[in-house]
Amino acid sequence: MDSKLTLKLDKFVIDKAKDYASTHKRSLSRIIESYLRSLINKNKKENNDDIEISPFVKSIATGVKIPDDFDIKKEYGDHLTQKYQ
Q1: N or C: which end of the chain has fewer CB within 10 A?
Q2: Percentage of the chain with pLDDT > 70?
Q3: 3 falls within a domain
């Protein structure tokens, strides 16, 4: 059941939020509702101490273990050096 809510916000924020909603083809009300829902769900999960991993994330897990001493910046630098030799 939808109910009406009146908010008092800065005009600049409202204008920018409307632009954002328009470019993402969503209503400002739905964006605000989604945000508030995420806050509610976040609080529930913090109290649970359980993190639910989505099926999509589970499906892309490779099982590859990365060593603790792995230096990603060095490896990427080496990769770029080889690539552009």
Answers
A1: N
A2: 89
A3: no
